[in-house]
Amino acid sequence: MEKNNRGCYDCFEDYLKKFEVSIRRALYQTPLSEREDLKQELHIKIFEKTRNIDFREEAPSFWSVLEKMC
Q: With 70 as the cut, is the pLDDT of residue 2 above it?
């Protein structure tokens, strides 16, 4: 892990905590023997989808998006 990416990984951990309740709730619908594997797969998928997000960057405003389109 690169030193300058450490902030992104810290943000990912916080982001993952937000999904923890939903993940736990969804896992009750799976057989007990498969829960841990599915939980790991869900964490990996969330990481893959969020690793390119710069959590420190502010969301663009409506007007800035509109300016880029014109």
A: no
Q: What is the CA radius of gyration of the chain?
A: 17
pLDDT at 21 over 60: yes
- The identity of residue 15, as a single letter, is Y
Cα dist. 59→40, 52, 67 in Å?
29, 14, 15
Helix residue ranges per DSSP H, the chain: 6-27, 35-50, 62-69
Q: What is the pLDDT of residue 5?
A: 52
d(CA 43, CA 15): 11
Of 26, 66, 68, the closest CA to residue 46 belongs to 26
User: Can you read off the two tokens belonging to residue 45?
Assistant: 């998928």
58 SS3 class: coil
